[in-house]
Specification:
By secondary structure, the chain is mainly alpha-helical. The protein has 15 helices and two strands.
DNA sequence: AACCCCAGCAACCGCATTTAA
DNA sequence: GTTAAATGCGGTTGCTGGGGT
């Protein structure tokens, strides 16, 4: 080996990888103090560190930035935010992270993948071994997503027309509602103060109903699944789905809901009247103990065991 | 005590996009 | 306008510590 290739080899060899040492962090911090968070490549070219510019930047962004919540677990609120934004944006971790103060894209990404693994395991262990059809029925479900997103602040965007569409005058929630066809806006019921931004994913309904042909949901069927333990087996629900649905009563399955208890599920009913069906369409749940959506969200954090589930076709794909 | 499993995390890699020359 | 370098992003990997057996 000689000449240029030798030089390249030496250069490659010198590059430091792996965990950062304190001294390296100090050098990197000094660089940022002097020049700001940029010119990462110059750190190496000046001989300050044997790290690539990319590595330096990553270290700064993920660990050294002063505003980071290092070593702090995601709060329930942050989890809700991530779940909601992931549903909205997909795996746009950097974008999602802009909604979470002190969190990096890596944080969000790691949080999400941990969660996916956890849920996959839960699904796996709670799935009855005897039923293949059960497995397929799960795939037909998509999670109804309940969120109170009123407290989520939209980030301050500097550019991008798409991002600029979320203006200060527009709440994050309203943009969310506007953006998705899957969202059914909740109308407040008299004498109850509901967060105006409460919404859920209506696609659960799509499982059973072609909305164009059957504009009215049967009262029990448009219930969110927290009422499912009381689910009546004769409600024109496909047998497979009933089987799946019945598993909400399975104590193991309930682990998905964190500290939710089976008894809570059994008694909880929420009067929800999707506006598209109108308050007079007879879709209100009868005889229910009213619970606030927020309470519900708190008691049933990250309800996303359906995340593995393939999305249903969009309405335009229905035939 | 030794081993295994797993969750959480940090860091790397490859590719895409943006910026500067 | 072109090209190379710098930066940003998302997927993936590997390490580590804690808990269970």
């Amino acid at each position: 080996m000689e000449g240029k290739s030798r030089m390249i080899y030496d250069e490659m060899e010198e590059i430091q990888k792996g965990p950062w040492k304190e001294e390296e962090d100090r050098v990197l911090m000094n660089h940022v103090k002097k020049y700001g968070p940029r010119d990462w490549s110059s750190i190496r070219s000046k001989g300050l560190l044997q790290r690539t510019g990319k590595s330096c930047r990553l270290r700064w962004v993920n660990k050294l930035r002063p505003d980071l919540k290092n070593g702090v677990k995601f709060t329930a609120e942050e989890e809700r935010t991530v779940i909601d934004l992931q549903a909205q944006f997909g795996n746009k971790w950097a974008r999602i992270a802009t909604y979470l103060a002190g969190r990096t894209d890596n944080d969000v990404k790691n949080f999400w993948s941990s969660r996916q693994k956890r849920l996959a395991r839960i699904l796996q262990t709670s799935a009855p071994s005897s039923s293949r059809s059960h497995k397929s029925s799960i795939k037909e479900f998509q999670a109804p997503v309940f969120h109170d997103v009123t407290s989520v602040e939209a980030p301050k965007f500097s550019s991008s027309t798409e991002e600029a569409s979320v203006t200060k005058s527009q709440s994050y929630s309203s943009s969310r509602i506007r953006d998705t066809e899957k969202t059914i806006k909740m109308e407040p019921l008299p004498d109850i103060t509901y967060p105006s931004s409460l919404y859920y994913d209506s696609s659960l309904f799509q499982l059973y109903y072609d909305l164009e042909k059957k504009p009215f949901l049967e009262p029990q069927l448009h219930l969110p699944f927290y009422q499912i333990p009381q689910f009546q087996p004769d409600l024109s629900v496909p047998v497979e789905s009933q089987e799946f649905v019945s598993r909400f009563g399975d104590p193991t399955f309930l682990d998905v809901f964190g500290h939710a208890s089976g008894s809570m599920l059994g008694t909880a009913k929420l009067p929800i009247v999707p506006s598209c069906f109108g308050p007079t369409s007879g879709s209100q749940v009868s005889g229910s103990a009213k619970i606030m959506p927020d309470t519900f969200v708190e008691d049933f954090p990250p309800m996303d065991m359906f995340d593995q589930i393939e999305p249903l076709p969009s309405p335009s794909e229905w035939s």
